[in-house]
Structure formats: C-alpha cells, structure tokens
Amino acid sequence: MILKVLAYYQWYTGLEFETIGKYLLPSKIIELYHPLHEADLEKFVDVANEIVIQKETNLARYRKNANMSQLTLSRYSNVSLRSIQLYEQKQLDINMAPANKILRLARALGCTMEELLEV
User: Fold this and answer.
1) pLDDT in tens for each of the 119 residues of the chain?
2) DSSP designation for 67
3) pLDDT value at position 54?
4) How far is Cα 74 from Cα 100, in angstroms, rounded to an integer?
5) Cα dist. 90→19, 20, 77, 113 in Å?
6) The model's pTM
7) N or C: which end of the chain has fewer CB within 10 A?
8) 3-class DSSP state for residue 1?
C-alpha cells in the first residue's frame, strides 16, 4: 500500500523520492490510511501536496477555487497536464511560460494572466 501510493505520488508530481521522503514519512502515510483508504488516489495527492509542497502557487489556488482537477484544467485550456503539474510544483516557472499558454489557463480559470503569475 505504501509503495503504491508513493509511486503514484512520485509519478503524478514528478518530485524526486528524496524530496518526497523529507516531508512524507512512511509513518505519515500509514496515519493517512484510515481516512483515505477508500478515496481516489488523487485525493491522496491533494493531501500529500499540503504536506510536501509548502506554498501553493497562484495557478493551483485559482484551479482549486474553480473546483477543477489538473486534468480538467488541461482539457479546458489545451495546456498539457504535465505543464500544469510542473507549474504548480514550481519545477517550471510560470512567469517564463509563453503568453499564449498563460492566456489559455487564465481564460479557463476566469482570471487575468497577471493573477496567475508569481510575484
């Protein structure tokens, strides 16, 4: 069970196991088992991200406020799921993204391009 959720989380986020292991110890995963064992793995990702990723990006905040999954945002904006994941994980700098990509994300989320940029 631990290996399955860790493998999924690593694949989903693209974070290195070393980074994940610093914040998400096996004991914490076991602690999360009872409340999450019947939930979708994406729910585990959301909970784990609150532990592992310290500050939420503007993109993630607007996406969550719109009640969209990353996959849904990808479909509505025509921006790849992987790009959205990397922007939210700060592995890619959204401030350096092509303007047309930021515009598509902003339109899908109902906000301005400036609101998605990180200051």
Assistant:
1) 678 888 888 888 888 888 788 778 888 888 887 888 788 888 888 888 888 776 689 999 899 999 999 999 999 999 999 999 999 988 899 999 999 999 999 999 999 999 999 87
2) T
3) 61
4) 14
5) 13, 14, 19, 17
6) 0.56
7) C
8) coil
Amino acid at 86: L
Confidence (pLDDT) at 85: 95
- Residue 89 Ramachandran class (φ > 0 left, ψ -120 to 50 alpha, else beta): alpha
Q: Which among 41, 51, 38 is positioned nearest to 6, based on CA atoms?
A: 41
Instruction: State the Cα–Cα distance between residues 77 and 52, nearest whole angstrom.
Output: 26
Q: Which domains are delineated in the chain?
A: 2-52 (no CATH), 58-116 (1.10.260.40)
pLDDT for 40 equals: 83
Distance CA 27, CA 88 (A): 26
Q: What beta strand segments (E) does the chain contain?
A: none
How far is the C-alpha of 30 from the C-alpha of 23, rounded, in Å?
Answer: 14
Report yes or no: 17 and 10 within 8 Å, Cβ to Cβ: yes
